[in-house]
Amino acid sequence: MIQLIMKKIILVTNDDGIHSPGIGALMRAMEAIGDAYMVAPDRERSAVSHALTLHRPLKVEKLGANVWSVNGTPTDCVALGIEKLLPGKPDLIVSGINRGGNLGDDITYSGTVSAAIEGTIFGISSLAFSLVIAEPPGARPDYGAAGHMALRVARFALENGLPYDTLLNVNIPNAPEEEIKGVRFTRQSKRVYHGAIHETKSPWGEVHYWIGGGRPFWERGDDTDMDAVMDGYVSITPIHLDFTNAGAIDWLRKKWNGDGFPIG
Ligand SMILES: [Mg+2]
Predict the structure, then answer these.
(1) Is 208 exposed, middle or buried (0-12, 13-18, 19+ CB in 10 A)?
(2) Fewest CB atoms within 10 Å of the CB: 100, 109, 239, 248?
(3) Span from the CA of 224 to the centroid of ligand 1 (angstroms)
(4) How far is the CA of 16 from the centre of ligand 1 (A)?
(5) Interval between CA 111 and ligand 1 midpoint (Å)
């Protein structure tokens, strides 16, 4: 049987910036399975969520045959990569490997996950990868095992595709591969930070506020993303782009008193 082997086009991006070690590890992993192209922010853009730059032009700098840096957001990078920079429509979009987990409600802030959201909106299989670095915060990140896991998940997505409107959010413990116990398919947990706003003063005595740190509180549950990584497993959560709470439509119908406004 003659088998046509077409090399897959893979777009690699992140929110930690083009010079972060995590995106280097992800790029090397993707080069093993396809034609990998890196389009990434020229500096760290963590926690920009799904921001799109509308009010200034974007500058693109070619740093290598398959590498472009953009003075914009992860979402800008995905849009530019798909529409302008890559030689064809990507078969796969991968984002990360983020320095730090994207668990629970963190994903709503995450530029890493939002890049995968943008890819999913374009109808392309998209994956977000994050390295969960446990306390203390200064622990040294090791992207070796995460790179291998990214390769496995990317192969899976290329072979099977993904369900409609769905991306995979992958969180990998910061541990040697032999210490990772396996994979759990999980749901997004609740994670809230307290005490994350710090008051500081400028040299001129003005009060400023600095958001960061804080104590995370999370919902526990065997089936959650958080529990999986706490137990030493890779967490893979399928994330659906449709945020609609379908049951709440009926709740609204029942609770809404009309007030002279007809319900259709
Ligand atoms: Mg980041």
Answers:
(1) exposed
(2) 248
(3) 21
(4) 4
(5) 7
For the segment 50-85, what is each residue's pLDDT rounded down to a tens digit?
999 999 999 999 999 999 999 999 999 999 999 999
Ligand 1 centre to CA of 100 (Å) is 7
Map out the domains of the chain as residue ranges: 8-190+220-255
Other Cβ atoms less than 10 A from the Cβ of 175: the count is: 18
- Give tens-digit pLDDT for 238-255: 999 999 999 999 999 888
Going from the Cα of 68 to the center of ligand 1, the distance in angstroms, rounded, reads 18
Three-state DSSP at 27 gives helix
Q: How far does the centroid of ligand 1 lie from the alpha carbon of residue 262, in Å?
A: 46
Distance (angstroms) between ligand 1 centre and the Cα of 47 equals 7
The answer regarding whether domain 8-190+220-255 maps to CATH 3.40.50.2300 reads no
Q: How does pLDDT run across 121-153, given as a tens digit for each residue?
A: 999 999 999 999 976 666 789 999 999 999 999
